[in-house]
From TrEMBL:
Residue ranges occupied by any AMP-dependent synthetase/ligase domain in the UniProt entry: 5-358
InterPro entries: AMP-bd_C, AMP-bd_C_sf, AMP-binding_CS, AMP-dep_synth/lig_dom, ANL_N_sf
Protein's UniProt name: AMP-binding protein
PANTHER family: BLR3536 PROTEIN (PTHR24096:SF323), LONG-CHAIN-FATTY-ACID--COA LIGASE (PTHR24096)
Domain AMP-binding enzyme C-terminal span(s) in chain numbering: 418-496
Superkingdom of the organism of origin: Bacteria
GO molecular function, one term: CoA-ligase activity
A Pfam cross-reference name: AMP-binding
């Protein structure tokens, strides 16, 4: 299915409604505007297989661009609106994006990034940016009918690389694939959630993240109305559920926490009985939190484990979770194997690295070493996201560790190496480790543990100086929320940092030398 089908059968049905402003885009408008954008992209020289970048906050224009690129056979890179100009520049260059589209409220950062990257084709949405062509005016003269060489494009989203730099996940693009070709998420949404054109889907998260973008586009394919929050607020979320009679949503566990922390009289005054399906992933959900959410919303909360890489997926519905608490489900895309460090498959109940078979391995753009590292050394057709877990006798997967100590804060993946690479350049820093520490609201918070240079005393002033140094070079979400000091970080003679020993100090283990 595709929104173009619904534009013919139900042209006036709302495709997108912004929860805050109330701006509404019908399926007819979405179809016509995405056609015009596809024509504009061709006129700008974008051919099938080319790449464009989007650097914007939540807006109906976001979907018009994505669907325009999708029907033009392009890769569309959705860049976090929180990134700094150097970070945006890196992604533009690494992805090979020929064109940058920015929201007017991100114009200053976009201008700096584009100038540094040498990007010439620059478009803006939701307002004007100096040096950028307003997309709304640019696309207006083009036909509202499809381009002659329509074919399906896809997203190219960024994850971490081996050096800490983000790496693009670039799936194969099949030339000539019809724009309405089915995909795994459409199948899951129909089979697992009963999604239909009558469904109302609420999206509370930034669209540059993989899950919100893909689930929104999936429900639009099916013909559902998608309600988009400009930004998440727990009470506003509940208001939207009641106002629009929301049936489906996708969240991260920190959103559950924020809703549960609302005063009970606030929480309970909103009618959420329309909700038939709420799915979560991205970060571990504490068992007590999920128990409370199921008690509140009913057994309508599903969970899955997967990555942007698309190399496998597990899934669990509430009834099975309640009898297997803590599980992330059984495989529905690929088969799961638990293996030791040599790649041998382990017995049921033993912990090891999680691999998927029967799927396409990840394809990290410009990083053959990362592609190789994702493969099982004995079974090279098995691939892993690097997580550690175990299977029970019923085939349910339980995750017990995270890939390379990645930090997940509020459902956002934060890779410590990038922050470490910045801090180590400070003249007063001899060594540094960045880890995730427990945080009541976000699951984890970023903490830096710094070994000062000889002769440099640890102090609150030094911590403030290092925090400011990070904020000048990194987006806010990657900056430490706190800094501790250690006279000597635990390293092997080979130089390997024993980050687990540092992390354990904050997660209940002893022998801390933190000062």
């Amino acid at each position: 299915m595709h929104p173009s089908h619904h534009a013919r059968t139900s042209p006036d049905r709302p495709a997108i409604i912004m929860a805050g402003s109330g701006e509404t885009i019908s399926f007819r408008q979405l179809d016509e505007r995405s056609n015009q954008i596809a024509h504009a992209l061709r006129a700008a020289g974008c051919q099938p297989g080319d790449t464009i970048a989007i650097f914007a906050e939540n807006s109906p224009r976001y979907f018009e661009i994505c669907w325009g690129a999708q029907r033009a056979g392009l890769y569309y890179v959705c860049i976090s609106s929180r990134l700094t100009a150097p970070e945006v520049k890196y992604i533009i260059e690494d992805s090979g994006s020929k064109l940058l589209i920015t929201g007017a409220n991100k114009g200053a950062v976009a201008k700096e990034a584009a100038a540094a990257a040498g990007t010439k084709d620059l478009w803006s949405i939701d307002g004007e940016v100096e040096g950028f062509k307003p997309l709304e005016a640019l696309a207006a003269p083009f036909p509202t009918t499809p381009i002659a060489d329509e074919m399906a494009g896809t997203d190219m989203l960024y994850s971490s690389g081996t050096t800490g730099r983000p790496k693009g996940i670039r799936p194969p693009l099949e030339r000539g694939l019809p724009i309405d070709a089915d995909n795994i998420l459409v199948q899951i949404a129909r089979a697992m959630s009963g999604a239909s054109p009558e469904s109302v889907y609420l999206s509370p998260a930034p669209l540059y993240h993989a899950a919100p973008l893909r689930w929104c586009m999936t429900f639009t394919r099916i013909g559902s109305t998608v309600i988009v929050m400009e930004k998440f607020d727990p009470e506003e979320f509940l208001k939207a559920v009641e106002k629009y009679k929301v049936t489906h949503t996708q969240v991260v566990p920190t959103m559950f926490v924020k809703m549960l922390k609302l005063p009970e009289d606030v929480r309970m005054k909103y009618d959420v009985s329309s909700m038939t399906f709420a799915i979560h992933a991205a970060a571990p959900c504490p068992v007590p939190v999920k128990e409370q959410m199921i008690a509140w919303w009913g057994p309508v909360i599903d969970e899955y484990y997967a990555g942007s890489e698309g190399n496998g997926m597990t899934y669990v519905k509430s009834p099975d979770w309640l009898t297997h608490k803590g599980t992330v489900g059984r495989p529905i895309h690929g088969q799961v194997h638990i293996c030791d460090e040599e790649g041998n498959e382990l017995p049921i109940g033993e912990e090891g690295q999680v691999y998927f078979s029967g799927t396409v391995p990840p394809n990290y753009h410009n990083d053959p070493e990362k592609n190789k590292a994702a493969l099982n050394p004995i079974h090279p057709d098995w691939s892993s996201l690097g997580d550690v877990g175990k299977l029970d006798a019923d085939g349910f997967l339980y995750l017990t560790d995270r890939k390379s100590f990645m930090i997940i804060s509020g459902g956002v993946n934060i890779y410590p190496q990038e922050t470490e690479n910045v801090l180590i350049t400070h003249p007063k820093v001899a060594d540094v480790a960045v880890i995730g520490v427990p945080d009541e609201d976000f699951g984890e918070a970023v903490k830096a543990v710094v070994q000062p240079m000889p002769g440099i005393a640890h102090s609150e002033e030094l911590a403030a100086e290092l925090m400011a140094f990070c904020q000048a070079n990194l987006s806010k979400l990657k900056c430490p929320k706190s800094i501790d000091f250690d006279p000597e970080l635990p390293r092997h003679a080979t130089g390997k940092l024993y980050k687990r020993l540092i992390r354990d100090r904050y997660w209940g283990n002893k022998n801390s030398r933190i000062v």
